[in-house]
Amino acid sequence: VPPTEKKKGSKLFALKTDFLKNDEDSIQKGILDHVEYTLARTKYNFDSFSAYQGSAYTVRDRLIERWNETQQYYTEKDPKRVYYLSMEFLMGRSLQNAIYNMGLKDEYHSALLELGFELEDLYEEEKDAALGNGGLGRLASCFMDSLATLKYPAWGYGLRYNYGMFEQGIYDGYQTEVPDYWLVAGNPWEIERLDVQYTVRFYGHVTERKSSEGNKFDWEGGELVQAIAYDAPIPGYATTNTNNIRLWSSKPHKEFDLDAFNGGNYLSAVEAKQRSENITSVLYPNDNTYSGKELRLKQQYFFVAATLCDIIRRFKKNHSNWADFPNKVAIQLNDTHPTIGIVELFRKLIDEEHIQWDEAWQIVTKTYAYTNHTILPEALEMWPVSLIENLLPRHMQLIYGINHRFLLQVTQKWPGDIGKMRSLSIIQEGDEKKVRMAHLAIVGSHCVNGVAAMHSELVRNAVFPDFAALWPNKFQNKTNGVTPRRWIQQANPGLSSILNKWLKTDKWVTQLECVKDLKQHINNPELIEEWKSVKQFNKERLADFIHKTCGIQVNTNALFDVHIKRIHEYKRQLLNILGVIYRYLSIKKMSPKDRANVVSRVVVFAGKAAPGYVMAKRHIKLINSVAEVINNDKEVDQYLKVVFIPNYNVSIAQVIVPASDINQQISTAGTEASGTSNMKFTMNGSLIIGTLDGANVEIAEEVGQENMFIFGLRTHEIAGAREKMRQKEVVIDSRLQEVFLNIELGTFGPPEIFKPILDSLMYNDFYLTMQDFPLYLDAQAEVDALWKTQDAWIRKSIINTSSTYFFSSDRAMKEYAEEIWNIEPCEVETSDYRRY
Ligand code: GPU
């Protein structure tokens, strides 16, 4: 062919179907190539960690292909997209998830076996990505898995913290915190995008300029910081669709202050620039509490400023009419953390795009929706006006304007009612004026949702009743969900095989409603036997882990009683450990004959306390002190063991959840917004001992209360019970008195250590631990009774698993897509025939 006839790019087009092959040999070659050319090690001799890395890079290659195909396809089709803005993504490990979702488990298994490695062992080489605290961050990750699996055009946006959730150690029973510099081991799951960078401004001043079309405002000066994008591909299950989580990292901006450098102080000028990197240094380790630090506000603004630049750039590729923006873009705020993004979009529309106030505000509110994750007052974010004024002067002006117009609406609805104005205002008056971020989020969104039916009721009727009266249609419920891929298929292979066998299909992985059919076989002794042996296998796996990490030998025939979550007074680990003490004292007092009837238990705790949360840390110390005494008491050896597993994280949860017989969901009624571990446990056939709080209520509706152990005060009884407590009318249960007495007498170590805990109960038992204590013991007695009839227990366990359809994050994401975002699936028509 003469050169002139060669079409530009024709070679590239011909290559378009030339994807990496997924057979065993190609994968194996890929692994060896990465060991040699990416890791620069010899392929004739490498260790497990290198094998993990090599495997991860081959997976990454395949993810990148799919990612490119997906994004190209979305660009072509231009569907409405959803952007999930979250300060936290608690991803855990990625290798197993990606291999399973791409359907390449067998290929990887045999490719690695020939190289001398077990795929399952390599999973353990991976460090958890822990860019989140707890439920809220893990929810975001489950949602991302479901969005990709359901083929929704979705993006996650967040921050790439250099330090994730701290690593917890336990020394002398106390929690210690070690920074989690997770990137030191390298991160094959991220793609650095040096071509995607934006500049973010802080501080500075606003200049008003007169103009014929009204005055213009310029935000100038201050400090500039650079945001760099890092992408993590999110593969859907059994689909080419591969979405993206884009995380921002802060870097010094190239512009510098010449005077500072010329002033002869070069080193300190460099140092000043270097400080911009601090913004994305560390994840704030608070769960359900507001910390009020300026750096946190900087993180929030940095996050949304970069994200909006990116979203708008993508929108502008195909559109020039701003009225189309809400038809192409839905933005979901994961709690109030990214709420300043409402003002940022508004600022860009007004100051940069020169759109009129009312029209701009319409665009903003049609675009945003806000999810509330807690009603605990200490978690509600309220930034001092002075802080925002200084850091984001233009935003503060706009917030005043937004509030002014909003309060006009309030006056129209309730003329002359100053009280209503005061309580609804975005600005809280007082010695120090504050911006109520939840109010700003409600005013700036078209939809506000809670995360479980009961929680959404409380959001509407107890926390924001006036907003609900003003905008009754704005409030919705979207009960949380968790992904059955990670939490059944990957975490519990034994259960997966049972499901595949008895349902005669593996469709349940994406259509969890299939598990209902398991109920037909509930009385089949073969199923019951298989169920028992899978649970036994999982318990042995956990027992090994406990032995490795804590040096404690536990009896795998015992009932595994599990309480794993952040340590918080409202979650009441204290109620549990006080119950354990009572159990211990009872066994000690028993005759040998009575002891023969005792149900052996292994009580497992795990969870981190915020480093500044003194009381929660004391609860950890109490648990460990009690464990120490019990585990070293030969007399109770076969009946009771207490284990605190340190450094709880996603991958540890994947081992604990499938091994549990019962799980504790015992928050004071009305305090836990939803809970999501309750869903994971139920899927894995663990029975809940719990209060009617959060999603437990809906789990009880699906599973049936007779298949759980529900106890305790109800939400509507809480106010009365608190009043009773304040009036000192509570009679302390005699069994609890005995527990207190033993703590005070030093049975579990120097009593002064635990005095603050007992005092907190005696002077202000806000979470009503004492009033629920007798009811809790009754429920635990029921647990023991049922355990003695193993087949009845197993049947209830099967019923739990088979009733969990509703708690799949697939269901949750469909509801969000249809009822809030108005988006549709956009299935990639893959150009590679070999895939799906
Ligand atoms: N949650 Br607010 C967190 O994990 N961290 C937070 O800062 C806030 C809420 C949790 C809720 O406590 C839990 O009940 C809920 O299931 C979860 O968010 C996801 O909605």
Automatic annotation (TrEMBL):
<keyword id="KW-0021">Allosteric enzyme</keyword>
<dbReference type="InterPro" id="IPR011833">
    <property type="entry name" value="Glycg_phsphrylas"/>
</dbReference>
<keyword id="KW-0119">Carbohydrate metabolism</keyword>
<dbReference type="GO" id="GO:0005737">
    <property type="term" value="C:cytoplasm"/>
</dbReference>
<dbReference type="Pfam" id="PF00343">
    <property type="entry name" value="Phosphorylase"/>
</dbReference>
<dbReference type="GO" id="GO:0030170">
    <property type="term" value="F:pyridoxal phosphate binding"/>
</dbReference>
<keyword id="KW-0808">Transferase</keyword>
<protein>
    <recommendedName>
        <fullName>Alpha-1,4 glucan phosphorylase</fullName>
        <ecNumber>2.4.1.1</ecNumber>
    </recommendedName>
</protein>
<comment type="function">
    <text>Allosteric enzyme that catalyzes the rate-limiting step in glycogen catabolism, the phosphorolytic cleavage of glycogen to produce glucose-1-phosphate, and plays a central role in maintaining cellular and organismal glucose homeostasis.</text>
</comment>
<dbReference type="InterPro" id="IPR000811">
    <property type="entry name" value="Glyco_trans_35"/>
</dbReference>
<keyword id="KW-0321">Glycogen metabolism</keyword>
<dbReference type="InterPro" id="IPR035090">
    <property type="entry name" value="Pyridoxal_P_attach_site"/>
</dbReference>
<feature type="modified residue" description="N6-(pyridoxal phosphate)lysine">
    <location>
        <position position="680"/>
    </location>
</feature>
<comment type="similarity">
    <text>Belongs to the glycogen phosphorylase family.</text>
</comment>
<dbReference type="GO" id="GO:0005980">
    <property type="term" value="P:glycogen catabolic process"/>
</dbReference>
<keyword id="KW-0328">Glycosyltransferase</keyword>
<dbReference type="GO" id="GO:0008184">
    <property type="term" value="F:glycogen phosphorylase activity"/>
</dbReference>
<keyword id="KW-0663">Pyridoxal phosphate</keyword>
